[in-house]
Automatic annotation (TrEMBL):
Keywords: ATP-binding, Chloroplast, Glycolysis, Kinase, Magnesium, Metal-binding, Nucleotide-binding, Plastid, Potassium, Pyruvate, Transferase, Transit peptide. It comes from the Eukaryota. It is an enzyme of class 2 (transferase). The lineage of its organism: Eukaryota, Viridiplantae, Streptophyta, Embryophyta, Tracheophyta. Residues 458-557 form the Pyruvate kinase C-terminal domain. This is Pyruvate kinase. It comes from Erythroxylum novogranatense. Pfam families: PK, PK_C. Its main location: plastid. InterPro entries: Pyr_Knase (IPR001697), Pyrv/PenolPyrv_kinase-like_dom (IPR015813), Pyrv_kinase-like_dom_sf (IPR040442), Pyrv_Knase-like_insert_dom_sf (IPR011037), Pyrv_Knase_AS (IPR018209), Pyrv_Knase_brl (IPR015793), Pyrv_Knase_C (IPR015795), Pyrv_Knase_C_sf (IPR036918).
Length: 567
């Protein structure tokens, strides 16, 4: 077997700096054949080769890293320092914006525990987002992080224009403002706002209430004049670029016009093509109304990107999405409780119960769920959160959501790293408290697969998770090619962390969104005995586990549960 080889020089490979090669490198003699070096005896598709030479530029022997294993640098450090039981289970997402788009800022977030970087196509140009993606990828490649990328579509709900470059505009009580479907030449005329929806002037009626960003500012429609709608400000406040607009008549949301808007606009399709070309890990779809659009997008992605498997996340942020909740979640690869827009479409007091319902349903249907928006809103301006915000974060963690998301706090706030650190410390504390109190909620986990073998996998995971809790094991190991078995274990929310071994980097990045999973990339075989022995020695060599640790292992290939102490 001959392969193309990547050579590491002492300067670029840290292992050379160690006094002795780690045990998982084995020395092989080299065979030379017309400029090519042949190394036999490695089954790894990408063997790491360390070459030693005679000092005159010619290699005499090679050390092959028999099975390279990849885990992100942050997790590795955490595991070494604190052991398995105290690792964070709740995953963290940061929206990237002007406050966090430089490489050093992105790295600070990666070190601070960012599992997924979200880019919001509502803002910035494709070139801007492309640069962010490139920076994240470079950090992953060069520094060993495994930050996944989520692209969020703009969607086509009604929103204001971009204020002609101004970062905000203030509307005072009683002022008359014009909302118009006309596009204006710069500079924007005073007290005039452009609206993105062509039917706007036809659809609103005199007397309607115009609500900006779910209530940050309110207007009353007083006169219609061709494409212009004159409104009086009734609740003063700050207008932000592209702020969402809803209008209300006799106390209820006017929705007819929204039904006319496509969930995925023509601009969204271009953004989706961009996301596919860039190989993002997740695409989050705004203002989903039905399962149909998710199915449509999934088949589009499947036809466009055969080798990469992009997960589609349904954003629950409209009345229609709540009406068709179960079928939407069923069709998607995950869901987001997008409380910002949701709170503009349903009364605010209904948002907490909607959140709980979505989180529970996702877990039952085995789909990862994200709780998003305003978790630490005050930290956009202040270095410390309000007590109410900490309570909100705690509630989402107690609900066992897979992931929490920062929006403005990380995109344009003054304290992105501090906000992330609050999410991290609150998550770890609340998770620990749950384990100590032994408050395993007995959630009914219905069967999700159709085939009998899927049902077996589900039963194995439920039993393995239960055994892990009762025996107080140190970790669950799962060997999974597609990631499915890992997600089934995650769904059980066991007390110990789940070490998920998977063969591809893309599955590994995707698993980064799911509760309690510590994903490793490792090439493994169908022989569980040898997989286990290899993983034990690899993890031991890196100081991540030690002899005597109690482990339960399950795998995609072999439907069994193994309980053992690390030799
Ligand atoms: N790429 C970006 N460029 C500039 N500003 C950004 C960018 N991404 C986010 N922001 C800023 O951060 C704020 C919060 O981001 P967030 O992603 O929550 O957007 P949003 O406008 O509230 O829309 P959505 O409903 O999609 O979340 C935005 O209102 C915007 O001011
Ligand atoms: C995240 C998002 O889109 C919202 O909260 O509206
Ligand atoms: K969006
Ligand atoms: Mg939204």
């Amino acid at each position: 077997m001959s392969r193309s080889l990547r050579f590491f020089t002492p300067a670029t490979h840290p292992s050379f700096l160690k006094p002795a090669l780690p045990t998982f490198y084995r020395r092989f003699p080299l065979t030379f054949s017309s400029n090519r070096v042949l190394v036999k005896a490695s089954s790894d598709p990408n063997p790491h080769i360390l070459v030693s030479g005679n000092g005159a530029g010619s290699a005499t022997s090679a050390c092959v890293l028999l099975s390279s294993i990849e885990v992100d640098a942050v997790t590795e450090t955490e595991l070494k320092e604190n052991g398995f039981r105290s690792t964070r289970r709740t995953k963290l997402i940061c929206t990237i914006g002007p406050s966090t788009c430089e490489s050093e800022q992105l790295e600070a977030l990666a070190v601070g525990g960012m599992n997924v970087a979200r880019i919001n196509m509502c803002h910035g140009t494709r070139e801007w987002h492309k640069r962010v993606i490139e920076r994240v990828r470079r950090l992953n490649d060069e520094k060993g992080y495994a930050v996944a990328i989520m692209m969020d579509t703009e969607g086509s709900e009604i929103h204001m224009g971009d204020l002609g470059g101004a970062s905000s505009a203030r509307a005072e009580d009683g002022e008359i403002w014009t909302f118009s479907v006309r596009a204006f030449d710069a500079p924007r005329p005073e007290r005039t706002i452009n609206v993105n929806y062509d039917g706007f002037a036809e659809d609103v009626k005199v007397g309607d209430e115009l609500v900006v960003d779910g209530g940050m500012v309110r207007f009353e429609v007083i006169e219609k004049f061709g494409p212009d709608v004159k409104c009086r400000c009734t609740d003063p406040g700050l207008l932000l670029p592209r702020a969402n607009l809803t209008f209300w008549r006799n106390g209820s949301l006017v929705r007819e016009q929204n039904a006319m808007l496509p969930t995925i606009s023509s601009k969204d399709w271009l953004d989706i093509d961009f996301g596919i070309a860039e190989g993002v890990d997740f695409i989050a779809i705004s203002f989903v109304k039905s399962a149909e659009v998710i199915n449509h997008l999934k088949s589009y992605i499947a036809a466009r990107s055969r080798d990469s498997d992009i997960a589609v996340i349904a954003k629950i942020e409209s009345i229609d999405s709540l009406k068709n909740l179960e079928e939407i979640i069923q069709a998607s690869d995950g869901a987001m409780v997008a409380r910002g827009d949701l709170g503009a479409q349903i009364p605010l007091e209904q948002v907490p119960s909607a959140q709980q319902k979505v989180v529970q349903l996702c877990r039952q249907l085995n789909k990862p769920v994200i709780v998003a928006s305003q978790l630490l809103e005050s930290m956009i301006e202040y270095p410390t959160p309000t007590r109410a915000e900490v309570a909100d974060v705690s509630e989402a963690v107690s609900q066992r959501a897979d992931a929490l998301m920062l929006s403005g706090e990380s995109a344009m706030g003054q304290f992105p790293e501090k906000a992330l650190s609050v999410l991290r410390t609150v998550s770890v504390r609340i998770e620990k408290w749950w384990r100590e109190e032994k408050r395993h909620e007995a959630m009914e986990l219905p069967s999700v697969g159709c085939a009998f073998s899927d049902r077996i996998s589900e039963e194995i995971c439920i039993s393995a998770a239960k055994m892990a809790n009762n025996l107080e094991v140190d970790a669950l190991f799962v060997y999974t090619k597609t990631g499915h078995m890992a997600s089934l274990l995650s769904r059980c929310r066991p007390d110990c962390p789940i070490i998920a071994f998977t063969t591809t980097t893309s599955v590994r990045r995707r698993l980064n969104l799911q509760w309690g999973l510590i994903p490793f990339r490792l090439s493994f075989s169908d022989d569980m005995e040898s997989n286990l022995n290899r993983t034990f020695s690899l993890l031991k060599a890196r100081g991540m586990i030690k002899s005597g640790d109690l482990v339960i292992a399950v795998s995609d290939m072999l439907q069994s549960i193994q309980v053992m102490n690390v030799p």
